[in-house]
Design a protein that fits this description.
The chain is mainly beta. The chain has five helices and 24 strands.
């Protein structure tokens, strides 16, 4: 679950790792199991079943692998694993097992081949479909080519040969989850105790920190540091422009809801899920952090069986003293967010297999028209639903021509693997939107037991059958919200 209230930020990243990560990518995950194919992702036509496990699911064989065969680990598979898998599958990483050596990886060869063939791994849910042809490709596209998928299948078919280390192909360095050259790193000032799960599964506590900048600076990099990764579900980052949160005892406001926890002016500037790479906008794009302001971390804790403590959650921040040429603004469209509902009040009835919620928003800024002289480019987009959702699509309707341009389609939605998608072009070559254009957000839901996500929800709450699902911030509620990151030349 995720509740998003503010309209401006660098980029909100609800992300998935295991892509070909580079600086500026933002990835994350919350799945478990071999190949991480254990999430509740599904399509209306082909739901997937999931069984979390941390033991290999390869078929037993008494025949040893035949050495000298291709593909093998050292010459073919190790470079692919390093590029597409190791950001998550590393010791202490978000995935439940590591893939840094042949010995660690070989037992999973059959599962790996199956998952990459189905497109489950690496997790990448943006698809080109009959309904959606995005105007540009995405940065860091994690999808494997047909040739790369064939290498995984051939490796499994050959019983995962290791090959000759002397012939090993160069292995790329997996991306680091640490922010490069942070200007400061700030952690929470007091300890929080998170109650064990009983009737309450989700807690929202706000943490106020002082970034310490004595002058206005422009943020171009963020990374959340989770103090207790076992229970930190996600974090939203706000600028508290009036520093009202400085009055919180110990810098903490418990049970603050899904927003910043204050009534004063706030600006959402980022978000994080476990496994996320640093949040870094395109070059010459940034967001102002005024001198004297505070930062608020809204931390969603998902309760464990026993009480847990967190005393180390914080934030690494990188900034520049000079104002960039482009200002990043982040709009939230749908529910919760900007836009008008086209299907009446948000409600997903029990046992309905193809329920639609759709929203339309006319492009503006804080309710005011945007002059045509202002250059606004879309540089990032993300979709977000919960466990009942199965399909989500976002498109722009041109105010002058009526032509529709699809930005993002995630037709096999998977709550456990979420990420933002950044378009692969220079800022001035990105897709341009104008004031008066309409942005449409359309979500489909399957609230039947044919949807594995519904079964997860029912098991979690101990109910025997689907129930009506309303709009809300909890994991057992639903949302239909698109995050749109735009760069405005000179700002608004």
């Amino acid at each position: 679950m995720l509740r998003l209230r503010s309209a401006s930020c660098l980029v909100l990243t609800i992300s998935a790792c295991a892509g070909p990560a580079e600086p500026g990518d933002s990835e994350g995950a919350t799945s478990t199991g071999p190949g991480a194919s254990t999430g509740p992702g599904t399509t209306a036509e082909e739901p997937t079943t999931t069984t979390p496990t941390t033991t290999p699911t390869t078929e037993a064989t008494t025949d040893p692998p035949v050495e000298g065969l291709r593909p093998n680990w050292h010459e073919d598979i190790a470079p692919l694993v390093a590029m597409h898998c190791a950001s998550c599958h590393t010791p202490g990483g978000i995935a439940p097992f590591a893939m840094t050596t042949y010995e660690e990886t070989a037992p999973w060869s059959i599962s790996m081949a199956a998952d990459v063939d189905l497109g489950l791994m690496p997790p990448w849910h943006a698809q080109e479909t009959d309904e959606c042809q995005p105007p540009l490709g995405f940065k860091h596209d994690a999808r494997l080519s047909a040739e790369e998928k064939a290498l995984f299948q051939g490796w499994a078919d050959n019983k995962a040969p290791e090959g000759d280390p002397k012939l090993a192909a160069p292995v790329p360095t997996p991306a680091s989850l640490a922010l490069t050259n942070p200007s400061t790193t700030v952690k929470m000032g007091s300890e929080l105790t998170i109650a064990g799960s009983a009737n309450t599964l989700d807690y929202f506590h706000c943490i106020s920190i002082d970034p310490g900048n004595t002058d206005t600076v422009y943020v171009d990099g963020l990374q959340v540091l989770a103090g207790n990764p076992e229970i930190v579900h996600h974090v939203l980052i706000y600028v508290d422009q009036s520093a009202a949160s400085a009055s919180w005892p110990g810098g903490v406001s418990e049970n603050c809801g899904g927003g910043a926890g204050i009534n004063g002016p706030v600006q959402l500037i980022g978000g994080w899920v476990p496994g996320s790479l640093p949040i870094e906008p395109p070059p010459d794009v940034g967001t102002a952090l005024p001198a004297g302001s505070r930062l608020i971390l809204n931390v969603h804790y998902h309760a464990a069986a026993t009480p847990q403590k967190d005393d180390g959650t914080g934030l690494a921040i990188r900034w520049k003293p000079s104002q960039p040429g482009w200002t990043s603004i982040f709009e939230l469209i749908g529910a919760p967010g900007q836009g008008d509902p086209l299907n009446g009040p948000f409600l997903i009835p029990a046992d309905e297999s193809d329920h639609v919620e759709e929203f339309s928003w006319t492009v503006s800024y804080q309710g005011q028209p945007i002059p045509d002289s202002v250059d606004v480019r879309v540089w990032a987009t993300l979709n977000h639903m919960h466990k009942i959702g199965v399909d989500m699509r976002v498109w722009v309707e041109d105010r002058d021509t009526g032509v529709n341009t699809c930005l993002l389609h995630t037709p096999r939605w998977d709550y456990n693997w979420q990420r933002s998608y950044a378009f692969d072009a220079p800022v001035d070559g990105l897709f341009r939107i104008k004031g008066g254009d309409k942005i449409h957000v359309k979500c489909r839901y399957d609230n039947t037991t044919q949807n594995p996500g519904v079964n997860e929800v029912l098991q979690e709450v101990g109910l025997p059958a689907p129930f009506d699902v309303k709009l809300g911030e909890g994991t057992l509620d639903e949302m239909c919200v698109n995050g749109l990151g735009v760069a405005v030349k000179g700002g608004l």
